[in-house]
Task: structure prediction
Amino acid sequence: MTDLARAVRPGRGSITGSDVLVVAGYLAAAMLLYAGLWRDLDRGYLVASDQDQNLFEWLFAAQAHALQHGGPLLFSGLQNAPLGVNLMANTALPALAVPLAPVTLAFGPTVTWTLVLTGGLAGTATAWYWLFSRYVVTSRAAAALGAGFCGFAPPVISHAKAHPNFVVAFLLPVIVIWLVRLPSARRPVLHGVGLGLLVTLQVLIGEEILLIAVTATAPFVIGLAVARRPVPRQVLVGLASAGVVACALLAYPLWWQFFGAQSYRNIEHGPRGNPLAAFGARPTQSVGGLVSDTSPHLAMNPTEENAYLGWALVVLVAGLAVWLRHDLVARLAATTAGVAAVLSLGAEVTVDGRPTGVPGPWALLSELPLFESVLESRMALAAVPAVGCLLALATQRILDTRSERRVVSVSVRAAWSVALVAVLLPLVPLPFETVSRAPTPAFFTDGEWRRFADPGRTIVPAPLPRPGRAEALRWQVDAGMGFALAQGYFVGPWGEDRVGGYGAAPRPSATLLDAVATTGAVPAVSDADRAAAVDDLRFWRADAVVLVDGPRQQELHTTLSTLLGPGRRATGAWVWDVRGITRPAP
Result:
């Protein structure tokens, strides 16, 4: 820690015109990427987010609703009735959702979603720029380049389609700054308190990205600490103070996450390492992906292109690691990038998706607590700021050379500029495709639902919401969160061993209706099916089953009528009032 503190420059806090221009550029770039959302802050929807936008908007709305009505902030009974959802065990981002609750209540969760994503990209780039320009390099241009990569690199842009918990990472460079300043802190206890607060906030925004960053940097930092003993007293006191503060503030949230209602032990994803070929792939959401073929089969989906950097950048970074090897900060960055890349290969190395039989070091971590739920391919995210740091350091080194120095009759600065353009231009992100979502059925927006369901009771949409079909979450938001939903999109425990699963374990009638919605085939309904439907409705504490106008409506209507009897036509929907089944008269 002390050696790192000596290796960086003292921070300079004055803000210059160049700083303002750089930050304005980051903000403009982020707004351009999300221009489709900014043009339609009511119904705009990111196509590549699949159902994740519905999920995160619901998370923002649920926490705002809890604040407004005095409910719990870490648990919600509005989904998965009657069991509810453990918000701390989901990506609820309470450190953002709570302060932004007034925005959500006043303007709707799509505005909050857009602000969080846009601010996440621009804010993260800005925070890295402050770190680089004040502590790593003297050139504002070099810092802007490196930080711009940190904020808008292909792996980040991949998650920026759907995962704000990975996009909003502006506290990570602030934590680094706090650590770098710790050895010289005059009041290490107070400094440690600030560090503990920062760690607490980061956990309440995105604990997985913090775990990834700590894991990737740990080998170098531990090795440095062992080799350069003793550790200064200020560092020990500061870290101890930070640990006490963070543990005190996070004790209840983390206890609730792992042991509270609807908590789960871990999520079993199966092997999800990055194939070696993924590091050379062109990202789909980029200039290079627009002009040449990409390799989508190398990632789980378009939001998990965690290693798509292109071979040109991989080769350049490897060369920079060798060239800058005598710089301590560069060695930290190169080691972090290497550790992150190797761990992201998973428990078994694959090439172009084909197993090689070669074990990966992730096998040593995969069964440990916390790590067992991490997608190992995401470890590559820790390489992004490391690469950005190397780019900043290399650019500074080039700018420090005499302008007359030449490589094959070309000035060193010109050659470096051409190399950067050739390597980075194909990685420049493209604006995200945005569409206007279908309007919420009038049955919910006009308050018609109140005729069929009492406040707090459950409405069962047909088919039931699940991770691949979560539009009903938006309907609930537009209805003022006045009723609970059966099933939904969340992560919760499945079975007695509490293994995490996406959505609720399906009940018989949910499976039946889902099959109708998928295939269009009307089943032969038996007495056993009717009895199961009654049991399910009572379990859900349902007041009404609602079928809105849409695909497979006739087939679903026929099935529901056979199960429950004739329904009633309401505003834009068919409704089966089941209060007589679930709440029979005494």
About this structure: The first helix runs from residue 2 to 7. The chain has a mean pLDDT of 93.
